[in-house]
Protein 1
Amino acid sequence: MGRKAWVVAAMASLVAASLGGSAAAAVGKGSSPAGLITIGAEEFPPVLNNFSSEGNGQWTGMVVGPALARGYKLMPDFTYQPWIFDKDCAVVTPIDTVGNPPFTVRCTLRPDAVWSDGVPLTADDFKFTFDTIMNPDNDIVSRLGYDKITAFNVVSPTEFQMVFAEPFAPFRDLWAGTSTTVLPKHVLEGTNFNKVWNSCICDPKTKKPISSGPMMVESFKPDQQVTLVPNPNYWGTKATVSKVVFVPVPDSNAEVNAFRAGEVDIIYPQNQFGLRKKIEAVDGAHYTSSLGPQWEHFDMLSTVKGLDDIEVRTAIATAMPRQQIVDRLVKDANDDAVVLDNVMWMANQQQYEPNWSIYPASGDVAAANSILDAAGWTTGSDGIRAKDGVKLSFTLGTTPGNQARELSQQIIQEQMKKLGIEFTIKNSSDILWKKMTGFDYQTIIFAWVGSPDPYGNNSIWLSTSIPEACPPKQAKNGSCDSSGQNYTRTNVPAVDQLLNEADREIDVATRTALLNEADRQLAVNAVTVIPLFQKPTQLGYRGTVTGVRDNPTVDGFTWNIEEWAQT
Amino acid sequence: MRGFVARRLLVAIPVVLVATFVVFLLVSATGDPLADIRTQPATDPQTIRLLEAQYHLNDPVVERYVYWLGDFVQGDWGTSFATDRPVTDMVGEAAWNSFLLVGTTVVLSVFVALLVGIVSAVRQRSAFDYAATGFSYFGFSMPDFFFALLLQLVLVVWLREQFDVQLFYVQGKYTIGEEGNLVNLLQHMALPVATLMLTTVAAWSRYQRDSMLDVLRADYIRTARAKGVPRSRIIRHHALRNALIPFVTVVAIDTGVLLGGVVVVERIFSWPGLGLVFFTALERSDYPVVLAWTALATVFVVLCNLGADVVYGILDPRIRVGRRAAPARKSSREAGAPEVVAP
């Protein structure tokens, strides 16, 4: 090609680019086409199988949740609303004395519930789901509660009964939440569940989407896009949007930019400072925040010298400036944020009682000092208290790079200095696995994920759930049991008794009282895990979308997708 | 030449081994693929044990690396811990997108850098030269991620909020419903490419300027001028051709480095390329994917270096590649800050 030809080609390219840009500018107003709602996903689901270890994240649940119905829908106030069930499951076996017939729960289904291909959704599907969960060859992240079922009886297409060896009060949790979706037996039977449910919610043979909810997963392009379309055969309120598309926006700043530019209609980012103002500044956009099920806490390993004295732990709890932490970290996102005063129930649950309010939220340094003085911990020349050669000097760890937690550390460190307790910040990326599970830590800040029923958190408190510190070789050959998540080595017999009793108690009021009593016991006689606050959710949606309501439970903000509309 | 190429490719093998082993050590020491589920109270301990066994997490690090390497050399790049997909599928799909971004950046950067470098050298100490120098400092000192966000704010958000116009995009490769539309693709590529070009143009234009200045001061150029050869002919035929030789080698070397630089840019623009795959895998401690990316990036760098040597030999017949040591070269980044132009 000659020189002139090059010049002509270059000019032509420039003109074409300009025309292209102009044309696009004319049509590209940024907003989604009618009926299409685009959602920016900070943590794009790696797979669609919400039962598996890979797909256990909240985003997977929010993506597939609208396509796979559950027995119950988790409501924003943490209550259970029958969904596939036609009413609340009922206990059919009275349990009054030892030796009675086993504890049986009877559930009945809506007769009009069908899969998207027209096949009725029956009790056989529930049985198939139970069998899939209990199959040891399947990668199932949690079998908690299902392992208590001794028999699963299908009575009729619209009724099944679960038989437990002993009373099991939190039975509703078995069929509620996005990790307990009901599986379609007629398409999954005989397939390898570990493989076929990861990349499509579909019939593995025909690849046609299958759904029992208001939407169907039309397509899934890993790391790029998930598309939901309405399920025309949905038996409940039908969705009105024509399409909902999830796209990855992993960078939180870019996520806000995409929202402001109208490239995404809804964002649900991790809690971050200043986000609320940015969302509210967008013309017509809405911002909502709820107190979610994730709660931050300060943990003390109760076997560390110094921390093995409950007076020291009590003094730390008494001086803990929890209100300051909430004001600095959470109020920016949520005006209603409060100090969490219960480790069993979340502040927005009806059963919540502020049992930890025995420790002043603002932190009472004088009272804490008195506790330590009375316990014989005296301040040395270096300003650090000591007794019998043991200094109150501890490490305080968390995962590095988490701004909120690092700020909490600084606040706590400053406050505890006033008590004569030294905290040295020691963060590491392996603190939540190698160090915590190996008891190679002293104090730590992180978050647990709560569920509507506290049963799921028993393994944090029961003395039987204290894991053994297993060297890799012993863990590998199974000679050492590293299971259990009581990483603070909390051991209060009364708590064990109350929790076990609560699991068997089906009277809601009595059970609530038992769990609150367990919480009080933990506050007074353990003081190993000090609750700080619930992490707020942050939901932003553009004014062109209506009907969006946040749901702080694991069901997430897509829980009412059938009510959404695009104007 | 063939022998030289073969030798260089053989040298790449230990380089890949060392790079992947170091990365494996770092990933193993700092992350746990099961970290998320370990902190969920309801997690079944049996599942954790099953996954630990499946991923050999309780085996010594060296042993685990050998498992991976054994499979890798047989063409089995393993399965992603996070997505349960073959790593080859994940990487193969994303590689094309990354090469599209890197390729476009290189082509455009060469064009712009050559133009700026030549004009700066020919009009040394002119206003244009000072402006180009200033731009180079700006390009060198501006972090990729910051510039990317700045572009998003100004050229996307501001245009949208002030004029309701969308010329460019913040995220993805296509707008939903516009898949396959070339103009839409270019609009999505524009800002990531511009971000990547900032550093490359800044560096390459300075390199070209310096190289051009060296040549313009050479005796044979003075002779040509004395003989009355027109200035434009001197620049195009005598100076530029010689000044291009080091420039081309720098471009070839830097192209290899660009694949690493694209990681941050792809994440910010949610561009579905290797960088995004790598970053996500790193966050999940998904080391089969991280190692595959490392191996691929290492091979790419080695190939680009090899390409630089070959091209150098082709452009300059005086150099007999393979018969003598390869000429000493520097990447533009190693060359350091641009020369300060005296006032």
Protein 2
Amino acid sequence: MKRSLQRRLSLTLGSAILFAGLVASLASFILAYVEATEFQDDMLRQIALLATHSTRSLPPLIDAPILPRTESVLSDSESRISVIRLPGEPRPGWLDGDLTSGFRTLETDRGRLRVFVQPGPAGKTTIVAQPTESRDEIASNSALRTLAPLLLLLPVMAWLIPHIVRRELGPVSRLAGYLDAQPADRPRPLTDEGIPDEITSFVHAINRLLERIGVLMDQQRRFISDAAHELRSPLTALSIQAQNLTQVASVETLRERITPLLAGIERARKLTEQLLSLARAQAGEARITEVDVSALARELIAEYLPVAEAKGIDLGLEEATQLKIEAAPETLRLILKNGLENALKYAPKNGEVTLRLDANGGSTIIEIIDNGPGIPLTERARVFDPFYRMAGTVGEGSGLGLAIAREAAAHQGGNLYLLDRPQGSGVLFRYRQGSEVEKFAVE
Amino acid sequence: MRILLVEDDPMIGEAVSVALKDAAYAVDWVKDGVTAGDVLKQDEHQAVLLDLGLPKCDGLEVLRRLRRVGNGIPVIVITARDGVEDRIKGLDVGADDYLVKPFDVNELLARLRAIVRRQGGQATPMLTNGQVSLDPATREAAGGDAMVVLSAREFALLHALLLRPGRIFTRQELETHIYGWNEEVESNAVDFLIHGVRKKLGAEVIKNVRGAGWMVKRPD
């Protein structure tokens, strides 16, 4: 519970107030005590003055135990002040010979006395005495009384502080409760109404995070629904193709109908594979090592040469520089295969597809250029969307290839661009990895 | 019976065409909504299988336009959109039935028979004019004492006639019921099929009206 802000605030505030209260009490006690002592000294001096200038004999006061009965005593039961006028009145035994004017404190057989000597006219001297015990008692009593308000304050504060802290932190725990009650799949933003300024920025940050999560969740939901939709098509084809087999009367028809069934199975297999690749690309599991791009390019060209030759396409390599980059070999291969497959698909018969390697200011550029019809500007951003197929495209592509390639590129810090071929129609598929930021992403 | 199949997926389109031809339907297959709309203006088909996710013009839009001009041709929507709302929308726009991919071919054929039957105002699955009866599910025909299974084309011919007993069909009309666009029609194919049906069920089953065409008689 050391991390409870409420508890920590209550404890630190409480301790601070207790400490300050104690210091204040001590100071107030000492000041009041000194004040009371000085006040009593003043009183002794005034009594002495009064007695000196009065010629009347003072009435004997009751119960003044510090002096013998015979002594002329001016005293009361609490302050126990004695007044002795010399000469005339009997000189008390504790009084020594020194009768200089002023205050002194004397140790006597009747305890400590505070004594004031007031020389008067014609050799008369007035002595006023008071036991320090009584003085101290009076002083401490009056000092103690000044402590009362402070001491009363402490329990009140002890009760108030946790309450105030709890009340002020209430919005925080309400926010937490609100967040807890949110459905995980569709969190609603927090309100900043009635929230202290210090926490508002925090609330806004959480809301921005929730918004990003919401967008991501929506994308995922759309993707899953699209994926399910896409899986239905090959499944539908498969189920009808299989049922068509039950209607055949001859072996020839059977053979005829098995071909599309096998194609349907191949299509379903490919789609499943692509969905898996996309999931892997998104998870970014691949291990990064140094890849010899020049070697990889030759490998890929060798792999696709039969496809190219079947269409009469001139597939070649343009190597401006030997390239080695830090990448996940399988991921890079996946990206480039996607580019090559698209290029070979869209390049016309007897067309040309070129794999080009280049380096530019710390970044690596791998391009695949075809001389096909190209991609209209309006479609260029959308072709990266999962399951998007350009209007008018024939064939049975899933529309996942570019989405997978872009995801894969992003996960190893690269970027994928589809640009116009510099001369004539066609697509320039560019993979770029490195320090420089490309400014003309999708123009 | 001639069906228009509107489906952009080449594999599904091919497979459904084969299945429909197996079930003795003439099938024409188009791959986008605009072409479908144009073809339907020709009024050559008796039913439409319509996929919703089409290029150029969405299937629902095709259906909406079709109904707006008062074309009541039976339409079965075939789609991968299976949300209840999608289905409700499809039916509200004017679909007669709704099939969600992936579907069973036999179910598709049964639903097709059902909507065509309802279109002809019949509730029972058997087509009959009192003289001859035809079971579209099994292609079995009964006339007099004979009970035979017809070939696909024979069935298509008799089916067309029995849907509108008493109406005279021209040779060309009968041909459009039996053959799709890409199928070669032999010059005497209709005569040949009528001959086959008469041979199986009796000559009086299909009546020839000289110079006009053929018909089955109206129920008594």
